[in-house]
Design brief:
heterodimer; A: alpha/beta; Rossmann fold; 5-stranded parallel β-sheet; B: alpha+beta; Beta-Lactamase; Helix Hairpins; 4 domains; 5-stranded mixed β-sheet; 12 helices
Chain lengths: 153, 492
Amino acid sequence: MMKFESQPDAASQSASPTSRQRILVVDDEAHIVQVLSLKLRNAGYDVLTAIDGEEGFELAVQHRPNLIITDFQMPYMTGLELCRELAANPETAGIPVVILTARGYALDPEDLTIGNIKNVLSKPFSPRAIMELIQRLLQSQPGAQAGNRSEVA
Amino acid sequence: MQAGKIASLILVLLVTAVATLLRVFALWAWELDAAPATTRVWMFAAIVGAVSATVLIPMGGILDRSITKLRKQIENAATSSQPIILDGLSWLQPISRAFIGAVDQFQQRERALRNQLGDLEIRHRVSEAERRQVEAVLHALRDAVVVTDAFNEVVMANQTAAAVLGFDLKAALHKPIDDVIHDQALRQLIRDTRDTANFTDTRHVEQAVSGGKPADGGTSESRVFDITLSCVENHKHEVGGVVTILHDLTREREISQMKSDFVSKASHELRTPLSSIRAYVEMLVDGEATDEASRAECYRIMQNETERLGRLIDNMLNISRIEAGIVQIDRENVDMKGLVKRALHTLEPQAKEKKMALHTRLAAIDLCVEGDADMLYQVVLNLVSNGVKYTPEGGRVTIAADSDNLTRSVLVTVSDTGLGIPPDALPKLFDKFYRVENYKRVAKGTGLGLSLCKHIVETVHHGQIGVESKLGMGSKFWFSIPMRYAGSKAAA
């Protein structure tokens, strides 16, 4: 896609030298996917991207990322439906999810109990704030080790 | 009169003759002394009888003629409105005078009654006119009105009430509310209001009321109403009845729902480009774009998204300006063929990029309409641009323009060989912010383009716009603009 997608090498290596954790970004807005990928790769994460819920779910099952960031409103499968699918699958049920939405108030608080939703951030968002949140979530994640091991294998 | 005199004369002569005869007979009878007494009595009786008959028969004839004449005069008098004159019957005068007096009185009484009747008719007409006026006012109201009397019977109701509460207006009159209104709670409200007899305050209740008979379907639709109930006082300061007004809140609720939907959709649409801009700005500030190329890419995205934001705001403002009727419209003679050519020229590069062909089929005659050239150009540009956006590479977009002599308008159609539109999306296509969910990825858009087109065509130019499409078979968008603008119907 973009030229700077292949950037996260020298600069990011220092930020996260040991375990390259994998993050899945799902959003139908290409720019959002792009900017998040850049931020995360610069910080040393492996980034997978999907442009809708269906593709996101397939990638999640296939690559079992350490964390998923998904948009709420997407064609084919919304972020919430994706969370439901993930929760229904034992292989992906434990993956923490962060939802990004341009309409925070349209979300029913009850819906947020579905699956493993950790946070809901409203758009416009700050990539910096997302970065901090992700680092915090991954550090407190007990399954992080397991995720790393499967990645190694 | 001559006949009368002759009759009198004959009568006198007859009486004289009879008297003479009587005397002669009497003398002759008395001289018949030899005859027995009985014979004499019989003879006398016979003579008297003969004489009476001779006198009475002509008299009876005269009397009969007089009465016949009187009768005819009375009969004539009865049919004419002239004052009655009974003449030539001097000896019947006492009777005729009394009769005339009586008739005069009758006539006076008749005149008085006629006047009264006239007054009553006028009053009746006035009250009838007033009743019609009240009914007209009632029927003109968009709120449902039911007027009941002291016995909770329907005295008056309007069409809205009949429609909303599901009864037959004519059949409902003078029927108890139990037979007319199906909603039990509403009946209770009317009864309560009648029983409280509070003339000073009106009651306001917000309540769902079900219309229609439970018989037809069982689940009759219920709507929320603002119900106003007030007691009517009669001339004896008693409860004369109850006026019930039902104001449907459904539409107001819908409008407020539409407004909040608009705000929520608008904010969603505005946030999307804004989040890109904000994120890229922060990336640049934080020095995340490490080389010149990626920085340039960030700038380009920010510029595009800023433009997108600007377009979105422009479209939103244009739509709301047209909706509010405050848009500035420059009406002039617009050459529609020229507009089509201009739009094609603008979109040619985009079409070329997708290896698409843009065809035109323009009528040979002049196609001029009265309208706002800039706005109409936007419509053509929007439709052709959609055609290019939603048609895969190598496809074709055809723009045709012709005159429709029947409706005296210019018809422009834009057909493509693209994806087509799902049937369930067709009715919502011209709605604000509506986008075919699965095509969001195919092309970018604000979801406002077609809504704006519809406003420009229908609200500003009194034209028509529509779409025909089959999934996978391409779409055909069309609009028609009247050649002459109906100025009297100007909306703005």
